[in-house]
């Protein structure tokens, strides 16, 4: 049995909306401030995770996948693409599938996880610590790799994806910290 992304959305989104409405009502009852900002960040994260799931694990196959591939040697895939990228440049008009695959693999795996590093610390002050954000990002990436291995055909569970995704989380966290610092400095300069 195959579960496509549209079916997943039809099942998931109504439950998410009901859950969030209940949470908003609870926050209003107990008088929690800033719940609008919180809800905005949580829902942005939800939308991003839906996009990430569509990109990485759908369609899901409930049957046993025909082809399972796994790469557990760190930097093996990255090192295969680096010489090609150095030889031809990072951005090129070349139609070489190897070059395009290399750029997508290395840059794409980093960029796609930057939002995790930005959005997770925005949810709560407790999540703003690097270690917490890092572990949530690592766990998210690891979960995707496991799902790809168990339920998708033609995809590879690759430790390099985990490394690159986690690097993206770290970059996102640095972006978050930098923006937070600049906002605080701006607010301090206005109050003086």
Order of helices and strands: EHHEEHHHHEH
Strand order of the largest sheet: 1-2
- Mean of pLDDT: 85
Helix content: over 70%
Backbone CA Rg: 20 Å
| Total helical segments | 7
Global structural class = mainly alpha
Strand-residue proportion = 5-15%
Distance between the termini: 64 Å
What is the 3D shape?
Answer: flat
Q: What low-confidence regions span 5 or more consecutive residues with pLDDT below 50? A: none
> How many domains would you count in the coordinates?
2
Biggest sheet details: 2 strands, antiparallel
The count of strands amounts to 4
Question: Can you offer a commentary on this structure?
Answer:
The protein has two domains: 1-63, no CATH class; 69-192, no CATH class. A two-stranded antiparallel ribbon has the order 1-2. A two-stranded parallel sheet has the order 3-4. The protein is 73% helix and 5% strand. The protein has 192 residues and is mainly α. Helix 1 (5-30) packs antiparallel against helix 2 (35-56). The mean pLDDT is 85.
Write the SSE topology.
Blueprint (H helix, E strand, L loop, with lengths): L1 E2 L1 H26 L4 H22 L3 E2 L7 E3 L4 H13 L8 H15 L2 H10 L6 H22 L4 E3 H33 L1
Parallel strand pairs: 3-4
Antiparallel strand pairs: 1-2
């Amino acid at each position: 049995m195959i579960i496509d992304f549209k079916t997943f959305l039809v099942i998931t989104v109504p439950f998410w909306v009901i859950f969030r409405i209940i949470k908003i009502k609870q926050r209003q009852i107990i008088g929690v401030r800033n719940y609008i900002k919180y809800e905005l960040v949580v829902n942005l994260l939800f939308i991003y995770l839906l996009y990430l799931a569509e990109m990485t694990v759908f369609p899901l196959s409930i049957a046993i996948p025909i082809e399972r591939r796994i790469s557990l040697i760190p930097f093996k895939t990255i090192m295969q693409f680096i010489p090609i990228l150095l030889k031809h440049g990072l951005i090129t008009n070349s139609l070489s599938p190897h070059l395009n695959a290399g750029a997508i693999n290395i840059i794409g795996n980093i960029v796609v996880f930057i939002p995790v590093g930005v959005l997770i610390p925005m949810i709560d002050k407790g999540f703003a610590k690097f270690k917490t954000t890092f572990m949530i990002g690592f766990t998210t990436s690891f979960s995707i790799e496991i799902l790809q291995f168990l339920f998708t055909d033609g995809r590879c569970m690759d430790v390099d994806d985990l490394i690159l995704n986690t690097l993206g989380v770290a970059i996102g966290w640095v972006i978050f910290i930098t923006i937070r610092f600049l906002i605080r400095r701006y607010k301090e300069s206005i109050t003086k």
